[in-house]
Amino acid sequence: MRRSLWRRVRTAEDGVTSIEFAFVLPPIFLLMFCLFDIGYAHFVRNSFETAVRDAARTVFIEPTTTEAEIHARLDAAVSSFGEAVTTEITQEEIGTTTYWVLSAQMPYRYVVPPLSSLTVTLHGEGRAPVINYQVDG
């Protein structure tokens, strides 16, 4: 009698699937949330770079814009990303052409626990030629 009870306990597989599922589920969820977080970081980076390029594009479309107006447009374009955004506007000469260079940086911190200690700096840059209209008169 005793031997058959031991044999039944030893060969029983009731509940093994639920135990294995309990071991496998947390790493799968962790991997899934890490992938979501990395995907969201790429979305934020792309949106940030697009905002800076759009600010440079408006400078190109309206070439009579002053440097103060350019700064205001760049700050307005990236203001939705938070207060930690730093912006800079410089002029650069390539050959005989002078360009406005609009650049911005912002820190991005991941959310998921294994990645939450990582902070990356996102950069965005846009260029627009400085156009000086000369009226012959």
From TrEMBL:
Domain TadE-like positions: 15-57
What keywords are annotated for this sequence in UniProt?
Membrane, Transmembrane, Transmembrane helix
- What is the name of the protein in this document? Flp pilus assembly protein TadG
Q: Where are the transmembrane segments?
A: 21-43
UniProt keyword Membrane, yes or no: yes
Taken from the record, one Pfam family name reads TadE
The superkingdom of the source organism is: Bacteria
The protein's organism comes out as: Parvularcula dongshanensis
